[in-house]
Amino acid sequence: MTAATLAVTPTVRSATSAPMGRLLWSELRWVFKRPRTWIALTLLGLVPVVIAIGTRIGGRGGRGPGLVGDLVGNGFVLPVVALTVTLAVLLPLVGAMWSADALAGETAHSTLRYLLVAPVGRVRLLVVKTFGVATAVLAAAVLISVVGMIAGYVVFGSHELLTLSGTTLSFGDALARVAIAAGWVAVQVWAVCAVALAVSACTEHPMVVMAATLAGAVVFGVLASIPALDWLQPYLLTNSWTSLTDVLRDPMPTGGLLHGLAEAGCYALIGWSLALARVVTKDG
To answer: Which among 18, 25, 209 has a CA at the least distance from the CA of 132?
Structure first.
């Protein structure tokens, strides 16, 4: 009996002390091995292509309204246009789907139960799941930006970026602005995913998580449209999303972008804390 006990003990300890890097890599493999992940990334990557083709066929000639009218001859605007369009619904919805798969999806397949009863820290488990979702969201934002830059250059041309202020930025500065836009959008979606993780930790039905995310977006939109609730708008996460176009101004105003980062940070902290509280107290 003693020998058997000694033989089992190292196995348990090795499970509890598994290297964090190995856990993170395993989670990434699991996330990017799923067909739905690649389907979502493919659809998101097609958004800038569809916008470019639609704008070219529409023949706006650079006189259209808003950012779309600035595309012709100024292809580097396309990544920002695509990020703006996808940030409205698609990216939050896809992020919510990945958050739903991270906890609710595994609960539905009874795999999360085995993880919770295993001798592995629950905080570390949530960190690993969060890392997988955050990486997938960042990959989506980068993919939209890269495809947007390529499609914009091929369809509309331009080695420089003509800003909304009328100035021209060099190729390097244009790349930097697109990178800022992609990173800022990723942070905004991370906040949505944190809240979705909190919902995902409370249910075993992934569709509930996605429905709750869409309902939240609708509610935020309604609240933002009521004049009597103007005092509430600075606290709505979606209120700062229109600041993304500031990356196309010269000099670039940072007030709205920084406010959006602060808002996203607060939502992410609250959402992740609620998810952690639920995961820690959840029964196996």
So the answer is: 25
Print burial letters for 166-195: b (CB count within 10 Å at least 16), e (below 16): eeebeeebbbebbebbbebbbbbbbbbbbb
Burial class (CB in 10 A: 0-12, 13-18, 19+), 250: middle
Residue 169 three-state SS: strand
pTM above 0.90, yes or no: no
Residues 99 and 196 sit within 8 Å (Cβ to Cβ)? yes
Alpha carbons 257 and 175: distance in angstroms, whole number: 18
- Note the Cα 60 to chain centre separation in Å: 31
Please say whether the beta carbons of 82 and 144 come within 8 A.
Answer: yes
Instruction: Report the chain's mean pLDDT, rounded to a whole number.
Output: 82
Query: Confidence class of residue 37 from pLDDT cuts 50, 70 and 90?
Result: very high
